[in-house]
Fold this protein.
Amino acid sequence: MLKILYVLFKQGDMNITKLAKETGIKYQTLLKNIEFLEQKKIIEVIKGEKSKIIRLNYSNPKVIILKNLFEELEDI
């Protein structure tokens, strides 16, 4: 799941198909992870007419902490 969050942090909002491609995670596995992360309010799923867009939920303080951690790790 960390890979999903890191890709979203680096590349921003994206649909599930692109997220699967970018992370290398199988589509069905990704759907389960997305459902879990959405329940925990780590990500938001925006449902469009043809696709769902996945984005980090920056209103969750845990996401801000994670973002700060990713930024710190990039500086190492």
